[in-house]
Amino acid sequence: MDRVSAKRNIKPFDGEKYSVWKFRIRALLTELNVVQVVDSEVPDEITEEWKIAERTAKSVIVEYLSDSFLSFVKEENTTKEIISDLDAIYERKSVATQLALRKKLLSLKLQGDIKLIKHFTNFDDIIRDMLAAGAKLDETDKVAHLLLSLPNS
C-alpha cells in the first residue's frame, strides 16, 4: 500500500472546519515531501521533479475535497492557487470574525452530558479558528479561557 492511499483521518472538505482540514492536508503534503508547491512560487524553469510534486499535491487535494468544492480545482490552477482561493474564502481574517469567535469561546462551557475530550476538541477548534482569523493569543490566554470553560468542581 502506498503512502497516499493509506487510511487517513481526513474528511473531504465540505465547507466546515477549514482550519482543521488545512492542517491535516499540510501534514500529509509534508509527509509526501510535496508541500513546497504550496509554500513556494512556481519556478521559472519547471523541472520534472516539480511537475511530479505538483501533480501529487493536486491529487491529494482533489481526493479530500467534497464533490461540491471541486470547482476550486480547475485544470489551469496550481496547487498554491487552489489553497490560496480556499484561504481567501474560508480563512476570514477580519475583526468581525475574531469577535464572533471570542464570543463563542467565552460562551463555551462544559456541560454535564458532554465528555471532557469532546469539550477539549471544541475548545481547540475555536482556538485554531481564532488563530487562522489573525487573532493573537498567548499560552496564558489559552489556559485562562480553558479554565473559564470548566465548572468550579
From TrEMBL:
Pfam families, A to Z: Retrotran_gag_2
Protein name: Copia protein
Domain of life: Eukaryota
